[in-house]
Every structure is written in C-alpha cells, then in structure tokens.
UniProtKB/TrEMBL annotation:
Glycosyl transferase family domain sequence ranges: 7-95
Molecular function in Gene Ontology: glycosyltransferase activity
CDD domains listed in its UniProt record: GT4_PimA-like (cd03801)
InterPro entries: Glyco_trans_1
Pfam families: Glycos_transf_1 (PF00534)
This protein's name: Glycosyl transferase family 1 domain-containing protein
C-alpha cells in the first residue's frame, strides 16, 4: 500500500504512459481503478469476478482468478498485437465516456426517479 495518495495529475500521467492495465482481483464489486484506466485509454486485463466483467465489457481481456499464466498470456497478446491493443484502447475510452461519465449516470438516475414517480417532477 502507498503511504500517501498519488495526486490526480500524477495518476493520469501514469495511466497515460501505460500500454494496458492489469487488475488481478480475487473479489471486486466494481473497481474504480478500472474506470480511471479506461478513461486514459488503457485496455484492461482483469479477472472474471464480481462486477469486473460488467465494467470491462468488450474493452479488455478477462481471465480466471488465481491464474497468473492466463494473465501473462493476455499481457503477451496485447504486447504482440498492436492492432488489438489500439482497438481495445479506443473502446475503453469510448465506454468510459458513454457509460460511466458523471452526466450520463446522472441522467439515468434522474430518468429512473421520474419513472418511479410516474413521470411527475
């Protein structure tokens, strides 16, 4: 664990300098770090646990948990195949903007409340 939080500007710099992002979780209900990495155009390599598959969708490669050999295979695939890496990078950024952007989520929540309340304001 880090003794001090990393400033946001520095985090963005680190994510942006990366070719991809690996999150080898055994349990993860959501994983905000996935959204951070996706917003910086990082394709994801992660495990098929908790909410990760829903967050990652088609923006990365998902592997079995407790399987370092599959993580290594996925990493090698992204290292060796620039076309796939760039495609997943683009999809990651698009998904972060279209699905997880604050304004998008706020509109969905507002719409849900309006539907629940019968369309009244």
């Amino acid at each position: 664990f880090l003794s001090q939080p990393i400033p946001l500007r520095k985090l963005i710099e680190y994510y942006s300098a990366s070719d991809f992002f690996i999150l080898p979780s055994l349990w993860e209900p959501f994983g905000i770090v996935l959204l951070e990495a996706m917003a910086c155009e990082n394709p994801i390599i992660s495990t098929k646990v908790g909410g990760i598959p829903e967050v990652v969708s088609d923006c990365g490669l998902l592997v079995k948990p407790r399987s370092p050999e599959h993580i290594a295979e996925a990493a090698n695939k992204l290292i060796d195949d620039e076309k796939i890496r760039k495609k997943l990078s683009r999809k990651a950024r698009e998904r972060s903007e279209k699905v997880f952007d604050f304004d998008v989520i706020a509109r969905k929540v507002e719409r849900s409340y309006k539907n629940y309340l019968g369309g009244t304001q």
